[in-house]
């Protein structure tokens, strides 16, 4: 049978060393050759070889060596060789080793003594250890601390052996004496650890006797003290009152590691506000004092846990947590903002906003490379604060509007979306926001930001002056008309206009030309030779951003400009009494739209205008020429109503997510409730009194009850063998974040004793068996629980298979029972998650792995099919319900989920209903890793056909 080994070392046995060669090298006098030979022998032993013929050679030629490296390798060799026979008795030749070990324990060199004592910690054979005990005990009083600390560990390991208490009866008393006189901190720690593991009462007594001096002990000993306190209080929670004072005193220890462990221990033992506040304060101090980013991230995780369970206490610590923004690391800043955003209340919102505004101003310095990403995080945080607390929007909206022209497009888009939401939810800010937006509109350089800003101008410019200013701003940013010209060859262009030549192309027989008065004329093909090819007129230096974007072929923005002008003109008709002014403005707008269409259909741009943008601009022209009341109502009211509906759905979705996060616990009818007011308070500190109150509240609300859905547990039981097999086995599968636990129940259904019964497992996929289950002897008609741990390294579907092997007294051959396969589902690793549309699009563009699955289902309703896919994949639909309303025969939706490893899973469902009623389309999956894309695609292919 294969033996378990605590250390696996790879050794290439392609050309294994012959035992005779190793033997010759060991018998020689060359020390480097002996060292290499010992290493080869150890490697071969670790990889399954036996090499029994080397033992006597090593005893004769290696034991007497004085070289420290050889002595260390000798101890490694002695650790891994077989020391007992098949019946468990110590081999006679081991007596040869005992004398050498005794000599080493009395060796004048401290290193030899120390490594020998460490070797004894790994020996389990009492017959070998017993003759060495006097020498081990002598080393407890050695002058060198290295030997004393290893001697204490050796005593502890010997005492923990099955017969250790008989051969070392007074070991705890002896170690307690050593502990009282020892000065070396490491040796003192080992002594207290020995008492902790072997005689817990004695360790507790020592701790309580020296409780006033705990703060003066070294870091190593203090860590063991905390471990002892956790163990004792976990066993008996009623005694935690006497230990909390020790923990509070250690919170001010000079060691950061002790402070961290103290805070964690305090949180695990007490839920009193005073204790939680002390722990949170310690975490915040570590957050500022530690320079290691990994330490800061771990501390932030602990603060996040406190926020979830003790939000009321953490609210007071919000400004201390915000100080972590001083770190330049983006992950730390992101995690800090996530924690802070859930701790904001009306009391602290002003302080938080002031801090965030200062951080936004700092990002303008440009000293750090990732200032743009940090600014985007801050803008999103301020946006979230302003949505929750509208009264603070006025203090930040004008500051953020300065970033509409930011070179980082993502942060500029976030500002535009923020302004769009604030102007709707805060009507008092409408006038100031519109004024500021019109003043800064010329600074915007990104198409998406321009589109959002134009929509705001079209919807929220209500007064006469605002409408006129909006039209004037758009005209100024578009520049002079036309957008391209036909100039005569040799004629010098205006010095204020920059002409960009384009490649010569075939000119149609009739082409528009711009005359000196600005009108258009048609020239014949005969006179074409007198003109140069058409050129783009970039406009004067005063021309704005819209013109430059249009001349790059961005006709989607052109359609947005046309729609904005249409809305402004329709509103102008309502607020402007003079029809002449309205007609003049309408004429100018129509000229702009016609010029856009001519530019899009000309040959000066490499790509003509797209059909959607063309239809949109033409629709605007028709509306301005002939407008009815119904159309006016749609353009001036319906768009804004749809936006309000979208905001309300977004708010409703966030509310539902918060409700889902809140864990509601219920108390059972027969649960015990201790009434705090009826208890005796004599001798209890304020912290203990608070703790009692919190415990009572937790019991009353059922927080101490672990959620256990028995029905779901039963669904996770898998039958591994048949009912007619001599051995029946079933497994309960528990999937954790990084491992899978198989709790296998094995039942002997025969009348015979099964010997050497072993559960042999193997895996496929990114699954690895952590350790092989040991052998068991199973009595007739008895059962055994066998646990197997399987490590998971990625989100991928895997298979666990194997068999049960056993022997009986009647049959000498081993019997094998093949087990059913256990399929590990990807759904066990992913859970629904939420992200913004912008983040979804960004990830969709970045992720390189895509799996495209064709729709093949008997379901004939689009929404029913989408619901089936969401249920089958355990994903969250990001598309709003309002966007899925109606019966148009088409459906497109985005789904999102995250795995326990932090991987993102993106799914886009695009389907169309055919004439025959069947659904057609594709489901596209994108992810950063190949495993999740393939596994999720296989899952969808398997599940999409029906509702099962």
TrEMBL record:
Residues 18-466 form the Clathrin/coatomer adaptor adaptin-like N-terminal domain. Residues 813-940 form the Coatomer beta subunit appendage platform domain. It is found in: Cytoplasm; Golgi apparatus membrane; Cytoplasmic vesicle, COPI-coated vesicle membrane. It comes from the Eukaryota. SUPFAM superfamilies: ARM repeat (SSF48371). Pfam families: Adaptin_N, Coatamer_beta_C, Coatomer_b_Cpla. The coatomer is a cytosolic protein complex that binds to dilysine motifs and reversibly associates with Golgi non-clathrin-coated vesicles, which further mediate biosynthetic protein transport from the ER, via the Golgi up to the trans Golgi network. Coatomer complex is required for budding from Golgi membranes, and is essential for the retrograde Golgi-to-ER transport of dilysine-tagged proteins. Residues 669-807 form the Coatomer beta subunit C-terminal domain. This is Coatomer subunit beta. GO terms for molecular function: structural molecule activity. The keyword Transport applies. Oligomeric complex that consists of at least the alpha, beta, beta', gamma, delta, epsilon and zeta subunits.
């Amino acid at each position: 049978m294969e033996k378990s080994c605590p250390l696996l070392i790879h050794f290439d046995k392609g050309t294994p060393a012959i035992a005779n060669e190793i033997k010759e090298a060991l018998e020689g006098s060359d020390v480097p050759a002996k060292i290499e030979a010992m290493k080869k022998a150890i490697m071969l032993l670790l990889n399954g070889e036996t090499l029994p013929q080397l033992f006597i050679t090593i005893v004769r030629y290696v034991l007497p060596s004085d070289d420290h490296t050889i002595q260390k390798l000798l101890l490694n060799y002695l650790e891994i060789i077989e020391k007992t026979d098949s019946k468990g008795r110590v081999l006679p030749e081991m007596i040869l080793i005992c004398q050498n070990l005794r000599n080493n324990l009395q060796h004048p060199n401290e290193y030899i003594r120390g490594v020998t004592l460490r070797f004894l910690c790994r020996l389990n054979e009492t017959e070998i250890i017993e003759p060495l005990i006097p020498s081990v005990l002598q080393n407890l009083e050695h002058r060198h601390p290295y030997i004393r600390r290893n001697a204490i560990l050796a005593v502890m390991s010997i005492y923990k052996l099955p017969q250790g208490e008989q051969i070392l009866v007074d070991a705890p008393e002896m170690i307690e004496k050593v502990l009282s006189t020892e000065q070396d901190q490491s040796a003192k720690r080992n002594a207290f650890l020995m008492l902790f593991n072997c005689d817990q009462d004695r360790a507790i007594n020592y701790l309580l006797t020296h409780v006033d001096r705990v703060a003066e002990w070294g870091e190593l000993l203090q860590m063991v003290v905390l471990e002892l306190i956790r163990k004792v209080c976990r066993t008996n929670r009623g005694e935690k009152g006497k230990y909390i004072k020790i923990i509070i005193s250690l919170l001010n220890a000079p060691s950061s590691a002790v402070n961290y462990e103290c805070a964690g221990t305090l949180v695990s033992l007490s839920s009193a506000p005073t204790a939680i506040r002390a722990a949170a304060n310690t975490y915040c101090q570590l957050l500022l004092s530690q320079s290691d980013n990994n330490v800061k991230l771990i501390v932030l995780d602990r603060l996040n846990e406190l926020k979830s369970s003790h939000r009321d206490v953490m609210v007071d610590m919000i400004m201390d947590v915000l100080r972590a923004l001083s770190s330049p690391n983006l992950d730390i800043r992101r995690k800090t903002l996530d924690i802070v955003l859930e701790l904001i209340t009306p009391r602290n919102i002003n302080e938080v906003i002031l801090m965030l505004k200062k951080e936004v101003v700092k990002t303008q310095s440009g000293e750090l490379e990732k200032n743009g990403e940090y600014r985007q995080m801050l803008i999103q945080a301020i946006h979230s604060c302003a949505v929750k607390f509208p009264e603070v929007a006025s203090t930040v909206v004008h500051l953020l509007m300065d970033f509409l022209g930011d070179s980082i497009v993502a942060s500029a888009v976030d500002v535009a979306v923020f302004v769009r939401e604030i102007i709707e939810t805060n009507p008092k800010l409408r006038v100031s926001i519109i004024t500021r937006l019109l003043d800064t509109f010329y600074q915007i350089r990104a198409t998406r930001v321009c589109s959002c800003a134009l929509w705001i101008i079209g919807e929220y410019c209500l007064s006469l002056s605002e409408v006129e200013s909006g039209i004037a701003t758009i005209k100024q940013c578009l520049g002079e008309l036309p957008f391209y010209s036909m100039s005569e060859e040799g004629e010098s262009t205006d010095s204020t206009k920059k002409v960009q030549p384009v490649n010569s192309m075939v000119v149609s027989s009739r082409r528009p030309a711009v005359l000196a008065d600005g009108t258009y004329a048609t020239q014949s093909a005969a006179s074409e030779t007198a003109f140069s090819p058409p050129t783009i007129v970039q406009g004067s230096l005063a021309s704005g951003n819209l013109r430059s974007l249009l001349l790059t072929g961005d006709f989607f923005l052109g359609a947005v400009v046309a729609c904005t002008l249409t809305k402004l003109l329709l509103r102008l008709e309502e607020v402007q009494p003079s029809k002449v002014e309205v007609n003049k403005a309408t004429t100018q707008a129509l000229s702009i739209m016609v010029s856009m269409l001519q530019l899009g259909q000309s040959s000066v741009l490499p790509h003509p205008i797209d059909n959607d943008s063309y239809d949109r601009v033409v629709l605007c022209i028709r509306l301005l020429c002939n407008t009815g009341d119904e159309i006016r109502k749609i353009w001036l009211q319906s768009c804004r109503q749809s936006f309000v509906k979208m905001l309300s759905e977004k708010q409703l979705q966030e509310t539902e997510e918060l409700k889902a996060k809140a864990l509601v616990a219920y108390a059972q009818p027969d649960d015990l409730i201790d009434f705090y007011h009826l208890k005796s308070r004599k001798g209890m500190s304020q912290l203990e009194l608070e703790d009692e109150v919190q415990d009572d509240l937790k019991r009353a609300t059922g927080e101490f009850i672990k959620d256990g859905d028995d029905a779901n547990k039963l669904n996770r039981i898998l039958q591994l063998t048949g009912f007619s097999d001599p051995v029946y086995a079933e497994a309960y599968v528990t999937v954790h974040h990084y491992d899978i636990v198989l709790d296998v129940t094995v039942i002997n259904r025969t009348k015979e004793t099964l010997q050497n019964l072993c559960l042999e497992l193997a895996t496929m996929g990114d699954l690895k068996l952590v350790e092989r289950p040991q052998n068991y002897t199973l009595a007739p008609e008895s059962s055994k629980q066998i646990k197997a741990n399987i490590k998971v390294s990625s989100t991928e579907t895997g298979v666990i298979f194997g068999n049960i092997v056993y022997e009986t007294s009647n049959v000498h051959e081993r019997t094998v029972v093949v087990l059913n396969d256990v399929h590990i589902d990807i759904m066990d690793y992913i859970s629904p998650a939420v992200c913004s549309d912008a983040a979804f699009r960004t990830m969709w563009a970045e992720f390189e792995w895509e799996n495209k699955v064709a729709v093949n289902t008997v379901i004939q309703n689009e929404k029913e099919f989408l619901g089936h896919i969401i249920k089958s994949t355990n994903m969250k639909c990001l598309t709003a319900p309002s966007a899925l309303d109606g019966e148009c025969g088409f459906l497109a939706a985005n789904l999102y989920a995250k795995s326990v490893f932090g991987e993102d899973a993106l799914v886009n469902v695009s389907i169309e209903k055919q004439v025959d009623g069947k659904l057609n389309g594709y489901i596209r999956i994108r992810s950063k890793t190949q495993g999740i894309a393939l596994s999720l695609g296989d899952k969808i292919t398997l599940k999409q056909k029906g509702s099962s």
